[in-house]
Design goal:
About 50% of the residues lie in helices and about 20% in strands. The chain has 13 helices and eleven strands. The strands form four sheets. The protein has a five-stranded mixed β-sheet with strand order 6-7-5-10-11, sandwiched between helices.
């Protein structure tokens, strides 16, 4: 019996368990409150494992130890992780390591060989092959381009009580709120890729990852064109946020239109042409307006842009 269910039974949370196979089972709970408690327990277990991964990215990581940190068997943990996030534990570890390595390529003078060894690769060739699979260019070319976006940040799993206690996968909301707290005023852009799920479904997740990288790079290029020093922060699967400080609304409108224009160029991946667009929500922030409210306003504006036909921006 999976360790997680044993814990729930021990705490009198479970009325009945029906096993379908070694991975799938149905849990009948005593009441709604216990359902929320169970979700919190699952979240805490997965959070523990993600923290364990993050703390050991520079070390050799074994799946057995990750599952142990989540108080689950390897088979149950692997299945649950894949169902929650859409990729395997191994894929997540590789992407996190490559994301940190990419940051080192841009912001340090370390040799590529030293960066390769730092993240567990035996030499340049092995590291370069792995890097190309993620970023579709060599480490040397990536460093030469000089543009870094944390496209594969650490995942944060939370429970959304407003939506009936469903799991939500967030990435860098905390970083956005931290930046907002340090600023007196400005504008925030919520940039969401239109019909991103269709890209994953029709062309595969590798194409989806390539689109994430390309879209974030194009946003960064526009920011640099407008001399804006701001990070492009990925906060969800296909959603990015940009914080603009000390600029007026007309400036922000022009910059937003430039981002939309930049996305009109089709993306070529594996011999296929991908047409993409984004919807953008714009919201003002200022001292006294809570950070969560600012993010909510920008997201609502982005959703309004989608409802009105996508490939446009709205201001809240």
């Amino acid at each position: 019996m999976p360790i997680l269910i044993e814990v729930l039974i021990k705490n009198n949370c479970v009325k009945k368990v029906i096993f379908i196979d070694e991975f799938l089972f149905i849990i009948f709970l005593e009441n709604q409150k216990e359902g929320i408690n169970m979700n919190n327990m699952v979240i805490d277990c997965i959070k523990n494992s993600i923290n364990y991964i993050e703390e050991n990215l520079l070390e050799e990581i074994y799946l057995e130890d990750i599952a142990k940190s989540a108080h689950m068997s390897v088979s149950l943990y692997s299945k649950l992780f894949k169902n929650l996030f859409g990729f395997t534990v191994k894929e997540y570890i590789i992407k996190r390591r490559m994301s940190l390595a990419a940051k080192d390529l841009i912001f340090t003078d370390d040799s590529i060989l030293n960066i390769a060894l730092k993240y567990g690769y035996s030499g340049y060739e092995q590291f370069s092959r792995a890097f190309k699979k993620i970023f579709y260019m060599s480490p040397t070319q990536y460093r030469k381009n000089g543009i870094y976006v944390n496209v594969f940040p650490k995942i944060n799993l939370v429970l959304n009580y407003l939506d009936g206690g469903e799991f939500m996968k967030e990435m860098e909301n905390g970083e956005v709120m931290k930046i907002l707290k340090s600023l007196e005023g400005g504008y925030i852009l919520d940039v969401d890729i239109d019909r991103f799920a269709d890209i994953n479904e029709n062309f595969g997740r590798k194409a989806g990852d390539f689109v994430l990288i390309e879209v974030s790079k194009r946003i960064k290029e526009v920011l640099e064109k407008y001399s804006i020093e701001s990070d492009v922060i990925r906060i969800a699967g296909d959603e990015f946020m940009v914080i603009i400080k000390e600029k007026d609304l007309n400036f922000v409108k022009n910059l937003t239109q430039e981002i939309l224009k930049r996305m009109k160029d089709p993306i070529e991946f594996d011999g296929k042409i991908l047409d993409i667009s984004v919807s953008i929500g714009v919201s003002e922030f200022y001292t006294g307006l809570g950070e969560e409210k600012v993010i909510e306003n920008a997201r609502n504006a982005m959703l309004d842009a989608k409802r009105e036909g996508r490939n446009r921006f709205k201001i809240n």
